[in-house]
Amino acid sequence: MLSPAPPPIAPHEEPTAEAKDDSVTVWALAARGGDPHAVDLFVRALHRDVRRYVMFLGADPQSAEDLTQDTFLRALSSLHRFEGRSSARTWLLSIARRAVIDSIRYASSRPRLSDTDDWQSAAERVQPRGLPGFDDGIALAELLDALPGDRREAFVLTQLVGLPYAEAAGVSGCPVGTVRSRVARARTSLIEWLDDAERRTPAVAAA
Fold first, then answer.
1. pLDDT tens string for the chain (207 positions)?
2. What is the rounded CA–CA span in Å between residue 54 and residue 63?
3. pTM for this prediction
4. Lower CB count within 10 Å: N or C terminus of the chain?
5. 3-state secondary structure of 189
6. Which PROSITE patterns has this protein been placed in (predicted)?
7. Which domains are delineated in the chain?
8. Helix (H, G, I), strand (E, B) or coil at 12
9. Are 43 and 95 contacting, i.e. CB atoms less than 8 angstroms apart?
10. Nearest to 147 by CA among 191, 103, 203, 196
11. Rounded to an integer, what distance in angstroms lies between the CA atom of residue 22 and that of residue 81?
């Protein structure tokens, strides 16, 4: 059985986020029906988004790959319940969020054996480049880590993963207006920190 073809895209036309989500949802529904090729397409299409999301939300960034794998294992075992009422990406990121929460709860219930987590270097390896206002010399991951958790999540979902605000609200379990407010506050904080870093740079150079 061949997996359904994604919605057609005009030649030389870059697919929109909505078109990509439609394709992934089609693959998820086909995977639910037992199509192994659709399973592969579904995993490949969303692996990067899930890993980026758990990297910025996870208590231990070095476990990002494990959390990503856990997310897909949970999703594949629950595909029979996916009916396409939301996009497959939104559904999957909701599962990723629960996986991160479960991981944090599990870690907090166990004694910490070492303090070898290198959050900054691990996050910098996956930080996106080319975002307006973020120079390569400034670690976006470090700035995001300084944000309150709810604002960081809203910013990551909408600005890095690319979810529409309504879908980000579904993942986070809060109203759309709350997501918009959190993103706006996160942007304000990040801009202020960037401006402060730029003001400090000449002083450091002069010293």
1. 445 555 443 444 445 566 788 899 999 999 998 899 999 999 999 999 998 888 877 545 567 888 899 999 999 999 999 988 888 999 999 998 888 878 766 655 554 443 334 434 434 444 444 444 444 334 566 777 888 889 988 888 888 788 889 988 998 899 999 999 999 998 888 888 777 766 765 544 444
2. 9
3. 0.60
4. C
5. helix
6. SIGMA70_ECF (PS01063)
7. 16-119 (1.10.1740.10), 127-207 (1.10.10.10)
8. coil
9. no
10. 191
11. 18
Of residues 152, 132, 154, the one with CA closest to residue 143: 152
Which helix (H) or strand (E) segment holds residue 60: the answer is: none
> For residue 22, which amino acid is it?
D
C-alpha separations of 139 from 57, 74, 85, 169, 171 in Å: 16, 32, 37, 27, 26
